[in-house]
Amino acid sequence: MAKLTLDRILQSQGFGSRKYCRELVEDGEVAVNGVVVTDWRSTPDTSGLVLRVFDEDWTYRERLYIALNKPAGYECSRKPSHHPAVLTLLPEQFGWRDVQPVGRLDHDTTGLLLLSDDGAFIHAQSSPRRHVPKRYLATTHAPVTEPLLQALREGVQLHDEPAPLRALSCEAVGERQIEIVLEQGKYHQVKRMLAAAGNHCEALRRISVGGLTLDMLGLAEGEWCYLEEAQLALLRAG
Ligand code: URA
């Protein structure tokens, strides 16, 4: 395969237009594996490549797979209306790479959010046919009762759905807290299911997607990390 020139490599990593990336290189702002390179026509090997741009190191990644511990008060939309976008929590160049959330969490939902610039990955993860289980911790307004858990397990009818939606599993984990696992990702699904079952969701946190849990990643709220092959395999394993 033809090797990419440095300006194209920088562009592919989200550092700006080719023209701007050429200027960055010519201005001595780019180091390749620790050595400043001023010729944008150079063709470094991308495998294991570390680019230093404005004194910050970035390992070359053909595609980005990211996990964010989403805080409340951020919207997953690219054009947010009332709150800042989750993308503002990531390095600026990720936005230029067209990194997008895999599915959406409400602005007040916290927890595990995946993001990527790999369209096939986003599609596969969010496809309803894949039935990727998603686990949530929901804090309820009224105490959790056995009939509530039973209703969520057996299925509740939401007004715009053709058939009742049920949880894959649902357990009480506190007087006003449940752990609920869903395989669909309908709009406000946990909140609407709780409302349809006669309670109200006061706070919602996603704690796992497939076999990948937030605990494994050790991210504080607002922190993000790259997902490596082993973690991506956990997502696929479900
Ligand atoms: N269900 C909801 O109600 N909101 C979310 O953000 C995710 C699942």
TrEMBL record:
Q: Which reaction does it catalyse?
A: uridine(516) in 16S rRNA = pseudouridine(516) in 16S rRNA
- Which domain of life, per UniProt? Bacteria
Q: Which family does it belong to?
A: Belongs to the pseudouridine synthase RsuA family.
Q: Which UniProt keywords apply?
A: Isomerase, RNA-binding
Q: What is this protein called?
A: Pseudouridine synthase
This chain's source organism reads Noviherbaspirillum aridicola
Q: Which InterPro entries match?
A: PsdUridine_s_RsuA/RluB/E/F_cat (IPR042092), PsdUridine_synth_cat_dom_sf (IPR020103), PsdUridine_synth_RsuA/RluA (IPR006145), PsdUridine_synth_RsuA/RluB/E/F (IPR000748), PsdUridine_synth_RsuA/RluB_CS (IPR018496), RsuA_PseudoU_synthase (IPR050343), S4_RNA-bd (IPR002942), S4_RNA-bd_sf (IPR036986)
Look up the EC number in the record and give it: 5.4.99.-
**Biological function:** Responsible for synthesis of pseudouridine from uracil-516 in 16S ribosomal RNA.
Query: Which residue ranges does the record assign to the Pseudouridine synthase RsuA/RluA-like domain?
Result: 65-196
Q: Name one Pfam family in it.
A: PseudoU_synth_2
SUPFAM superfamilies membership: Alpha-L RNA-binding motif, Pseudouridine synthase
PROSITE patterns (alphabetical): PSI_RSU, S4
Residue stretches making up the RNA-binding S4 domain: 6-39
